[in-house]
Design brief:
three-stranded antiparallel β-sheet, globular, mainly alpha, binds s-citryldethia Coenzyme A
Length: 445
């Protein structure tokens, strides 16, 4: 499974995309240089500066890499101006409506939607890989009761490297097993850590349940109380994972590519990605959004007052703004619809959802936000789905990590299959003291 696309991935290196023949002319210190222009399949354009230092002695400088392409990729396309997101060319809106997380993970990983047989085989492989080594259960008792689930997740994922040694030469079967392990075991680790945190016995995965049903059952079933899977909750969590599955070169994916470029152990590399995702400017924002909404609700601070504080830089409107989207994050639109449906169906109103709608209404009429292209991003409403599904707030970023796993692994795999692959090593411009010499302590004043 995956052989054809694997060969295709190995041969059609992204670094070998045909050059356009166009060049950018750079005049430096009286000399003229012609730098090649690279054009992507969606007509994105880049100046190839890979030989800039060798030819000119200059490097580029781009704080936060907002103008710097780290790689060429065939996985995800984002048009931030138009609010477009596609996985392997398929619009996120179509996948959210018609696909499942497992099927979309196969698409992201291997480049094509799976046939029925491939999907069954992929799904079965995930199920067979969902247990973790029994000796790993000791980890969960070693953490303090109130340990943040992301601290547990990053630790236990890295320790998979000790229990599931990765061969030096990753052939295709070994690579597919690692991928299945990580996609499936991260879900088990998340559920086990939750059960430990509430003092309940862990619930083992079942090979009779699909990916999301299995996860929800491990999370919320118990030997003493019946647990019924609500199909609307199952679908909402499935779409949540699907919407988070990849997002090109975001902070955590770039971390995975950077850490993976040293040929580090894949479990350790993914653990590094989880650490990057934890930050509240990135994946940690979904937890911060609900904390913000509950703060507004509990402290009687009106949405208008909160927005005013955000404009005065006293607060951040969490879940708003994005490095790439200069308009609505298409995922936010989809998640908002799911929130409406989920809350209406359950006949419950969530005051936090009402506050979120009010914040969005106020902000999107205010020039402070519009002039800075600050719109709701994926995190603004996503926590409300998870809250409605019964997940504790401190697990929201853990669920983001479960959803993002296919993207991390697909990007890692694409990098390693690229014949142009090399270790990542950015440069810098030094601004420290110029040459000076050691002064013995007796002479220092
Ligand atoms: C994710 O990269 C990805 O693809 C990430 C992600 C993925 O799927 O992997 O999409 C997931 O991480 C989404 C983003 C989640 N983070 C948040 O919601 C945190 C709140 N958002 C911000 O911190 C911010 O918008 C960022 C970090 C998302 C983007 O930061 P930028 O593009 O570097 O913008 P900036 O910090 O330079 O701000 C530009 C201006 C500043 O004001 P001025 O200096 O012009 O006066 O906008 C203001 C900022 O103060 N601003 C905000 C704001 N975000 C930016 N003001 C109030 N509230 C905000 N949320």
């Amino acid at each position: 499974m995956g052989v054809a696309t694997l060969q295709e991935a190995r041969t059609a290196s992204t670094a070998e995309r045909p050059r356009t023949g166009q060049t950018a002319r750079l005049v430096l210190d009286g000399k003229t240089y012609e730098l090649p222009i690279v054009v992507g399949t969606e007509n994105e354009k880049a100046i190839d500066t890979s030989q800039l230092r060798a030819e000119t002695g200059y490097i580029t400088l781009d704080n936060g890499f907002g103008n710097t392409g780290a790689c060429q990729s065939r996985i995800t396309f984002i048009d931030g101006e138009k609010g477009i997101l596609r996985y392997r060319g398929i619009p996120i809106e179509e996948l959210a409506e018609k696909s499942t997380f497992t099927e979309t993970a196969h698409l992201i990983m291997y480049g094509e939607l799976p046939t029925k047989t491939q999907l069954e085989r992929f799904s079965k492989r995930l199920n067979c890989s969902s247990l973790i080594h029994e000796d790993m259960l000791h980890f969960f008792t070693g953490f303090p009761k109130d340990a943040h689930p992301m601290a547990i997740l990053t630790t236990v994922v890295a320790s998979l490297s000790a229990f599931y040694p990765v061969p030096e030469q990753l052939d295709e079967p070994a690579e597919e097993q690692v991928i299945a392990n990580l996609m499936s075991q991260i879900r088990t680790i998340a559920a086990f850590s939750y059960k430990k945190s509430i003092g309940e016995p862990i619930v083992y995965p079942s090979n009779k349940l699909r990916f999301v049903e299995n996860f929800l059952t491990m999370m919320f079933s118990s030997p003493v109380k019946d647990y019924h899977l609500d199909p609307d909750i199952v679908r909402a969590v499935d779409v949540f994972f699907l919407l988070h599955a990849d997002h090109e070169q975001n902070c955590s994916t770039s971390t995975v590519r950077l850490a993976g470029s040293s040929l580090g152990n894949i479990y350790a590399v993914v653990s590094a990605g989880i650490c990057a995702l934890w930050g509240k400017l990135h994946g940690g924002a979904n937890q911060e959004v609900v904390n913000m909404l509950q703060y507004i609700r509990r402290n009687g601070c009106s949405p208008e007052e909160f927005v005013a504080r955000a404009k005065d830089k006293k607060e951040r409107l969490m879940g708003f703004g994005h490095r790439v989207y200069r308009t609505f994050d298409p995922r936010a639109r989809i998640i908002k619809q799911i929130c409406h449906k989920l809350l209406n169906k359950r006949g419950v109103s969530d005051p936090c959802f009402d506050i979120a709608l009010k914040l969005e209404e106020i902000a999107l009429k205010d020039d402070y936000f519009l002039s800075r292209h600050l719109y709701p991003n994926v995190d603004f409403y996503s926590g409300l789905i998870l809250k409605a599904a019964g997940f504790p707030t401190n697990m929201f970023t853990v669920l983001f990590a479960i959803g993002r796993m296919p993207g991390w692994l697909a990007q890692w795999r694409e990098m390693h299959h690229d014949p142009g692959f090399k270790i990542a090593r950015p440069r810098q411009i030094y601004q420290g003291p110029t040459l000076r010499h050691y002064v013995p302590v007796s002479e220092r004043v």
